[in-house]
Amino acid sequence: MLNATARDGAVTVVPVEDKALWRAFHRLPHDIYKNDPNWVAPLNLERKIHFDKAHNPFFQHAKGAFWLAMRGGVPVGRITAQIDELHLAQHNDATGHFGFIEGIDDAAVFGALLREAETWLKSQGMRRALGPVSFAMWDEPGLLVDGFDNPPNVMMGHALPYYQGRILAEGYSPAQDLLAYGYPIHQPFPPTLQRLIARAQDKHKFHFRPARFDKQHFASEIALILDIMNDAWAENWGFVPMTKAEIDDMASVFKFLLRPDALVIAEYEGEAAGFAMMIPNLNEAIRDLKGRLFPFGVLKMLWRLKVSGVSSGRMAMMGVRRKWWRSPVGAIVALMIIQKAKTGDFVRRAEQAELSWILDSNERIKHVLKSVGASVIKRYRIYQKALV
Q1: How confident is the model at residue 317 (pLDDT cuts 50, 70, 90)?
Q2: For 196-255, how does the pLDDT look when each residue is reduced to its tens digit (9 = 90+)?
Q3: In whole angstroms, what is the distance from residue 228 CA to residue 245 CA?
Q4: Greatest distance between any 2 Cα atoms in the chain
Q5: Helix axes 191-203, 328-341, angle to 10 degrees
Q6: Higher confidence at residue 345 or residue 9?
């Protein structure tokens, strides 16, 4: 636990290399956020697996390092640094990332952590640091800078307000903002959009179907979704293609937690044109578990997700193939995917959805979301710094 000792004395940064330090690394956020009613403790077992290089497919194409900041023998901060070979191949920009940054409200702690990460990145030949990205853009990128007054949705980050000032003080500047939109699920589309969609359906052959999770079709469905994702997001800021191993890992979890109608595939003139995935808010189901699944946490979680239901969800992924981006077809597919995703079995019992994350520079999708009545509820920021 943090105490007065953690506030005084010199800060040392140590690599996380043994079981005791890993326990402290994962325990630290529990201490940092103990007085924050909106923080949701992640599942301890899931975090251990996520950081295990033998189990997380991110490390098939990346390397990383992990540190704890100590003062008087007490952990007061943590950080990771990682270099993604797929990012370097895609962008050729000599950029590494830092992530999972946590710390007490102390300039010395944040300074020591960021300098350690920067030194490691420079030793690996990097010329720019970007973050926080934890571990990749497909995971939980960005630092929460606005929207601290409610809990994060599933697979979205949380932070304390002072974090952004501490990072800026170390010479970082904003690189990109990511937005989370809130949307009342049962709010109907405006009449003008409903008429637009009706005319499009009369004129063109649109078809929307749930994903097929049965044994015969599961592999081909996942391959289709991966193909759409990597095409739809290819021109986005910071894009790195998702690998088959990564989507297979994600699919193994979602297959266990989701119903097939949580994932909607859009077809236009017989061709798969886009998809969207609306998932129940796992954070709502685990908020009181304090990270523990055993002995009874897993039963509570599954009951809340599959039986009693949760009141919120997240449209975690949505994509339309690039060939239709600048055509009316693309806009109609995006609107209808949102509409169809609202009718799944899970969302019939939910009240609110978060549509996230959206690049602040993506004016096209921002316009679509505004047209259906969604509004920004959280803002995340990625920072950058030249390494000299």
Answers
A1: confident
A2: 888 888 887 888 888 887 888 888 988 999 999 999 999 899 999 999 999 988 888 777
A3: 16
A4: 71
A5: 110
A6: 9
Tokens in use for 307? 């039986």
Structure tokens of 275? 């998809």
Q: What are the structural domains of the chain?
A: 4-180 (3.40.630.30), 183-379 (3.40.630.30)
Q: How many CB atoms lie within 10 A of CB 146?
A: 16
The closest alpha carbon to 357, from 196, 190, 137, 185, belongs to: 137
E strand spans, the chain: 12-15, 62-71, 74-84, 95-103, 128-131, 133-134, 140-141, 143-146, 173-184, 206-210, 263-268, 271-280, 312-320, 352-359, 375-386
Rounded-to-integer distance, Cα 316 and Cα 201, Å: 26
Residue 156 clears pLDDT 80, i.e. is over it: yes
pLDDT category, 346, cuts 50, 70, 90? low
C-alpha triplet 243, 244, 248: angle, nearest 5°:
120
Q: How many residues does the chain have?
A: 388
Chain centroid to CA 360: how far? 15
Torsion (CA) 24, 25, 29, 32 in degrees, nearest 10: 60
